[in-house]
Amino acid sequence: MFDPDIAPSGTLLGLLQRGRGDGTLHALAAPRGEALAALDSCVAHDPRRDWQVENRSLYYARLYVELDGGLEGIERHLFDPEDATDTREERTGLALSVLGHLASYGRRSAVLLLRAYTARGANWRWALDELALHDDDAGLASLATPVLDRFPVTPEGDADLAVTVRDAFEPRPWQLWAEDPRHAGRLRAAREHGSFDRWQRQLGHQGPRPGWNVVDILQWCEDGLRRCGEWRYAAAARCLLAVATPQDRPVLLEAARSGPTGARAAALRHLADRSDPEALDLLHAACADPAADSELLTAALHTFTGMRGPGVLRQARVWAARPDPLGLAASAMLARHGTRGDAVAVLAALRWTVRHQGADAETLGDLVDGVGRLGVHCAAPVLRHVYRETGSSRLRGRAAAALAVTDPGFPAGFGVECLWDCEETTRELAARHAATADDRVVEQLRRLATDPAEEAEVQTAVRSRFEPDATTG
User: Please, how many CA atoms are within 13 Å of residue 242, restricted to the half-sphere of its CB?
Assistant: First the structure.
């Protein structure tokens, strides 16, 4: 059930890795050294399943503040010799984001560590973006030379500089340095080169062109998959909508039945978008084809889940009983668009998925949402299990939202813990639902209301609890 790098949910490390509110509460009650060691481990070994969508940095930064923790562990991680060989953003991104939040809380040591890493570290662009938000002009000005020295004064170095300036997430440091006569000429040239490069890329676009027909578009889709690994079927389907005529239907049907992977996926998507009467049968055939590769199966399932209409829902009810990917996709569709009469099928799919694929199955999100949307109160036990065990903070938040609807004990139970959760949407949910009989709840609500790093939606939800006519729980 657990990934090798994720500790059991009942341990302090496991709670912190998941970003659960109980992680903060347990850390504050644990011996300080033990809590800081677990916190340092989380920051040095990012536990997120998808670092681009899950939040942990503010959660960990707040805990460093609560524990008055030093930054030695983060510094060791950033300047580990591995930094020279593993330059992926995900190795150091979490640590740098934590430092950014700590800088916003007034930790001068975090600013100094970000400066040092900007000057010497591999992921210096991320560190510079954090400083652009939290450092003063003098501090940023001191970094101009070490940053620009990374780009040799050669044609290759100037080209790399132009790309970096063009793609900078936070432009403030580059604008500040461009005002310095020592660097103004080089940075002006870099900006001009970047603008010219963008114009060239637009002129060099190799996508579909006027005059292409159905066969050309299907071939373009297939070429993208086979020659450069680009999955173009959705774009190709949009192009087909613009050029395909009723006379092209036989070609599209043949491609959807037996074409190569890219062309077949594009034809299936086009026919589904057009609500062709044969689309569902063709999707079923693609999913059941033993010779089909995983790319085609994924595309066919995604195409099916995007279909709408009463006929599609009727077919989903037939397929929902299947113990295979198509059956799970059909159950997910019922979870999103079905009626109260589909509650039994959705709950059955949720239980089957948790039992056979664990609390981190990719298909769980829609099923969790579905039992909440349909108000399936007997789903509460399995939702609690997903909440506790999943390593995905996003999925845990969806489970919490479903529990708020299905579990009468949520406000005094998980609803309280969620006030300390790593995801702002989960904290917002808790701010609206958590029972205030516990003094910790009122104290945390007030803390969230005054924290400058907190999201506006969370603070709005908190303020609604303190209005004269608000329900106090």
Answer: 12
